[in-house]
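Researcher: Let's continue the batch. This sequence belongs to DUF3626 domain-containing protein, and it's 282 residues. Same format as the previous ones, please.
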Amino acid sequence: MRYVAAVSSGEPLDPRWRLTMNFHPDRAAGGVPVLRRMARDGVSYSQFVTGTGNGGLTAHPGGDRHRWESRIFGGAYDHASPHERSVYGALNHRAATAGGAPRFGSSYFRLNASTLTRATFCYPDSSTGPTAFGVANRCALVALADADGLDPLDGHVEAQIHGPVLLDRDVDALVLDPSYRGTPVETAAGELPCPVEWHTGFHLTVDRLRRQGDVRDRHIVDLGAAIARDGRLDPRVIGDAVRTARHDPQDLKKVWHCLARFGSPDSVPARRTRDASPSVQR
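Model: Same format as before. Here are the structure tokens for DUF3626 domain-containing protein:
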């Protein structure tokens, strides 16, 4: 915290803003459904512990995530155990229905105000080698993100929460996509020591996917059409496709990016993206 604070500038964050941790609640970690594991352990772990995630899977000694954290945190975690490392989220300064970083999942934990003071922030995402950092009482990153004009999937202010995120202490609510109503995800969510809420849902028709998907990734559009049910995609459909193990998980992640971009409950007209892939705009 001290290391990042020393290179941060700006005014304090609005205390009404909240951190969110987006993820896909129907995935598994170590062969155990992620929500079941969370109910058992009562804590949200980093990728260094679970070995799973919705971004690049490089959280191991010598991996990209390990090097990024060493640079950002001045080597503070270089010899730490996986359980001691920070967990990742985003500052939901736009009060988005789908959370601050839907690139990483359809559902999210909304953390309480106390977590702001033990978080560090960067913009852009830590995978890009950022040079702009912040802490709760000194943070100019929101203005940078808003001025950049990127789609929210690329333009989020990343948060790193230091210390354990305990579900019964640090979480205001688990906010789920409605496609999981009446599923084992809803049942498992009911076992967590935090309230469960629902947002209005991601959904995308195949017709719109074909109109708006990137022509350079036509195979991703075709995959989305192939797994759709009744001509529609939602998070549950993609999760079911993941569990069949019939498709490249990275391709299905890109299908999710299409759904998140074009079928978000917070959809606005598409804006500039950080790359040309169909992986932006909630």
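Researcher: Any comment?
Model: The longest strand covers residues 171-176.
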